[in-house]
Specification:
seven-stranded mixed β-sheet; 22% strand; 178 residues; 5 helices
């Protein structure tokens, strides 16, 4: 069992986010929502092309915003497509923070209890893993602390490598201890 903050239980696991059994998974998206490789490709491959078609219909959006689609054939009911980057495939701390926060606002609006996040920007975006972890953990903790209006009960960071898993675990434990 992982740490808990504001009634929300946190987990950090190595795995395939497209295989998660959760209310929603978050896609680290571009702002036009084309689903090529990485997390987006895994979600599209497992969940079906209808996820991408639905997302594209809702775009483009400014970087930092999110849209919601159904989960197709995924174990998740919803996919939250968080625009972490534009068409240049570059990201930044502010884009990662805003996309994380926007995804959480979608979770709150949907009234769901569980969500799984990947490491934003660390794939094609080339953002340093430790920086992504710090920004995402800060955004998530800032969202859940001091709130009594959340139905959200569980946040899982699902990472594709041992390195990312370790970095996110250390960052989360350190941030909660503060």
């Amino acid at each position: 069992m992982g740490p808990s903050v504001g009634g929300v239980l946190f987990h950090v696991v190595k795995g395939d986010i497209a295989r998660m059994e959760t209310d929603a998974v978050v896609n680290a998206a571009n702002n036009h929502f084309w689903m090529g490789g990485g997390v987006a490709g895994a979600i599209k491959h497992t969940g079906g092309a209808s996820i991408e078609i639905d997302a594209i219909r809702q775009g483009p959006v400014p970087v930092g915003q999110s849209v919601v689609t159904n989960g197709g054939r995924l174990g998740a009911r919803h996919v939250i497509h968080a625009a972490v980057m534009g068409q240049d495939l570059q990201t930044s701390a502010s884009a990662i923070h805003d996309a994380t926060r926007s995804a959480l606002e979608c979770v709150h609006a949907l009234g769901i209890e569980s969500v799984a996040f990947p490491a934003f920007g660390t794939g094609v975006g080339g953002y340093p893993p430790a920086d992504s972890a710090r920004v995402m953990v800060d955004a998530v903790l800032g969202f859940v602390r001091g709130r009594d209006d959340l139905e959200l009960r569980e946040i899982t960071f699902v990472l594709f490598s041992d390195e990312l898993t370790g970095v996110f675990r250390e960052t989360l434990v350190s941030a909660i201890a503060i």
